[in-house]
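Bug report (template v2)

What were you trying to do?
Predict the complex of my protein with zinc ion.

What happened?
Run completed; filing so the output is reviewed.

Input:
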Amino acid sequence: MGGEDSVRPVDGGFDQRSTWRLMATTTRRATCRDCGCREGELHELACFQEKCPFCGHQLQTCDCFMEHITLRPGSRRGKSKAALVDMTRAQEVEWERALEKKGRVPFIIYPNLCVRCGELWPPMFMVPTEEWKRYVEPTKRREMLCLRCYGWIKKVIDAGVPVQRGRLRPAASSRRRT
Ligand SMILES: [Zn+2]
Ligand SMILES: [Zn+2]
Ligand SMILES: [Zn+2]
């Protein structure tokens, strides 16, 4: 999550906070809102909540199946998202076998946390990519930040670093006079 391109806004239908907020702190088993399976169980195969055992991303939208099916003559690797739509029954079976063999990923909810303060399911917000890179250090850019922490980070960085985009100032001249 967090600013690969820009942080996605909360989409009403896919806002996990409201349905799952409490679940994350209890031992109650949650139910998948899309296919109805319970935590610990497998999703229905086409469920959008299922994670891919090969890459860890959303099974319905990743390209891993391309590595595990026999491609029709003329079709190219890498071309693919659309190929999912017109996969033949034989290719579907190949892909399902590959998934079974690897081991499908049972449904468990792992909450999003603000990487700085630990807030559960912080709401997402939009930040231009350039700005995100300016304020968020490299290893944290794919993580979540809550709006309060992000605002704080901006404030202290702006206060501490003279704005001189494009080149680094020598350390001595960037010290604040006291
Ligand atoms: Zn499901
Ligand atoms: Zn995958
Ligand atoms: Zn925070």
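What did the reviewer find?
Residues 32, 34-35, 37, 43, 47, 49, 107 surround zinc ion (ligand 1) (CB under 6 Å). The first helix runs from residue 16 to 20.
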